[in-house]
Amino acid sequence: MKNSRFMIIILIITLLTITLAGCSGNEASETSNEEQLVLKLANASAIGDERHESLLKFAELVDEKSNGTVKIEVYSGGTLGSWRETIEGLEPGIVQIVCESIGTLEAYSPTASIDAYPYLYRDIDHYLKVMNSEIGQGLLDTVSQESGLIIMGPSYRGARVMTTNKKVENADDLKGLKIRVPGIQIYIKTWEYLGASPIPMDTTEIYTGLQQGTVEGQENPVLYSYGNAFYDVCDYLILSNHVFSTDVFIFDEDYFNSLPKDVQKILEEAAIEAGDYRTQLVIEREQETIEKFKEKGVEVIEPDIESFKAKLTDFSKEFPNLTELVEKIQSYE
Q1: Which H or E run contains 40?
Q2: pTM listed for this prediction
């Protein structure tokens, strides 16, 4: 009996030891999970396009730089809402990061409109020189200060072109053209000056709008236009190259400043690297994407750009607050 009682006591001690060890393991796991910071990143463009690729790169870089303590969850294809809805969702913390063009911040910063100013840059080389200069950094800083948002990691979106169901060879051909534009004032004014009939429409509605004839054309970077299969619903690709636009990573200022300094640094470094990665992707793919449009049976047209510029001669009077910056950028060598 004594031996039996002794064996029972040993068994109870063993079971208690295993149980306590298990509890300790669970506590360690929970602590590890609590220490991992998870940020939701919203993207309204298509899954698989070059912006989406760069956001996955950003998530990978953040993971590496933080040794897995900061995780970026990428939600592309507008799964968390339109660009406007997700930017509005930054302050209440519905999302922590949005990747969008500087121009989408027009409602928060009057200077942000410069991103959509027509024929601001001579070509891609001029654009890159400006954005990599003090002027470019000053633009980012000014928009951040005015908007109460933190923006970083600029990337080239590609020159904006048109896809249409009407042949456009010069500005006169734009007369009355129903063209989808973002709901941003400077875009609307641009196409009014050019003689078209701009129709603001969310990105998720463009394909259907073209398919049903609600609009006869749309304007976006060539890679975006191809990625959203506008070749299925448009006969022409018009290389107007009217805007060289910049995407940025956008954070609510209070939220970003609440993060530990080392996490802020990681996010900033990763954003710059991912932005540079995206810029190179776009530059490499623009011309080959134009060729893909041709393969889809779309006629590619190089319009008379000077006729477009001629109709925009007095455009600066619409946005007098941008005049000084426009002149500084256009004269930059």
Answers
A1: strand 37-42
A2: 0.84
* Distance of alpha carbon 73 from alpha carbon 40, whole angstroms: 5
- For domain 36-315, the CATH superfamily is Bacterial extracellular solute-binding protein, family 7 (3.40.190.170)
Give the DSSP letter string of 71-117. Answer: EEEEE-TTTT--HHHHHHTTTTTS-SEEEEEGGGGTTT-GGGGGGG-
311: CB partners within 8 A, 6+ apart: 171, 193, 194, 195
The pLDDT tens digits of the residues spanning 281-293 come to 999 999 999 999 9
Distance CA 315, CA 323 (A): 10
Q: How far apart are CA 231 and CA 40, in angstroms?
A: 32
Can you give the residue ranges of every domain in the chain? 36-315
Whether the pLDDT of residue 24 is over 60: the answer is: no
User: For the segment 114-160, what is each residue's pLDDT rounded down to a tens digit?
Assistant: 999 999 999 999 999 999 999 999 999 999 999 999 999 999 999 99
CA dist 215 and 4 (Å) reads 88
